[in-house]
């Protein structure tokens, strides 16, 4: 199956949901991304800032780049001029740095708060209570060059579909609560980024608006193409 056929197949599955396909292109070559672009794909997700920068410079300007991996504060300045959405905001300090760099380049940068939903030590994210505290803080309220547009979460790496479903369900409940409490009149707060190649169908049923899919679009990761 060609890349174009794979993208069409996934998009057909997404037709009945308000869900956007983010093609995760980490470790994939510029040529492979061009193939997906030719098939109509415009939203791509990257983990590493250096890799993202290199690809962004070589690819069309109408691509929307999503920073989906853990983001260090000292790397924000490199993607601030062009990044479309940062999925992985996991601290107030990171949010403050994004705001600082966005101000320098005259932009408002859209962000998602990454929530720890799996309990796995290897995954980043805010605990539920910490996310609420962040949104209540005076420091957050003073940030004018960022916009929180939703939440992101990564489910446990497990074959237990019931566990994954519960984690996604709980994130959706948190999303609804935060929407009601902090963004009731804000139509921009509408994104729930959850679901990857192994669990996106469960995520769709639990309210995902963005699925981050790599291997089902490009095949398995190629670590030689960094």
Structure description:
By secondary structure, the chain is an alpha/beta fold. The chain is built from 10 helices and 8 strands. An 8-stranded parallel sheet has the order 7-6-5-4-3-2-1-8. Pyridoxal 5'-phosphate (PLP)-binding protein, which is involved in PLP homeostasis. Pfam families: Ala_racemase_N. InterPro entries: Ala_racemase_N, PLP-binding_barrel, PyrdxlP_homeostasis.
CATH-level-4 superfamily name: Alanine racemase
Number of domains: 1
- For the residues shown, what is the average pLDDT? 94
What's the gyration radius in Å? 17 Å
Strand count: 8
The level of helicity is 40-55%
User: How big a fraction of the residues is strand?
Assistant: 15-25%
**For the record, what CATH class applies?**
Alpha Beta
Task: Provide the succession of SSEs.
Answer: HEHEHEHEHEHHEHEHEH
Largest sheet: 8 strands, parallel
Number of helices, where a helix is a run of at least 4 consecutive DSSP H or I residues: 10
Shape: globular
CATH topology: TIM Barrel
């Amino acid at each position: 199956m060609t890349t174009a056929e794979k993208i069409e197949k996934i998009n057909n599955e997404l037709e009945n949901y308000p869900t956007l396909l983010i093609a995760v292109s980490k470790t994939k070559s510029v040529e492979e991304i061009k193939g997906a672009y030719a098939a109509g794909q415009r939203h791509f997700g990257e983990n590493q800032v250096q890799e993202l920068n290199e690809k962004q410079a070589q690819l069309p300007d109408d691509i929307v780049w999503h920073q989906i991996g853990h983001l260090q504060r000292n790397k924000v300045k490199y993607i601030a001029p062009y990044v479309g959405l940062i999925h992985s905001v996991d601290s107030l300090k990171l949010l403050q740095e994004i705001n600082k760099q966005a101000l320098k380049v005259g932009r408002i940068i859209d962000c998602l708060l990454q929530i720890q939903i799996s309990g796995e030590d290897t995954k980043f994210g805010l605990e539920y209570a910490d996310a609420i505290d962040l949104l209540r803080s005076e420091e957050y309220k003073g940030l004018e060059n960022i916009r929180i547009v939703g939440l992101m979460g990564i489910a446990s790496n497990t074959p237990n579909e019931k566990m994954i479903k519960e984690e996604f369900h709980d994130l959706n409940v948190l999303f609804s609560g935060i929407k009601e409490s902090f963004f009731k009149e804000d139509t921009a707060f509408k994104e729930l980024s959850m679901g990857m190649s192994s669990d996106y169908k469960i995520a769709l049923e639990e309210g995902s608006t963005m699925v981050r899919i790599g291997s089902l679009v490009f095949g398995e990761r190629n670590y030689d193409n960094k």
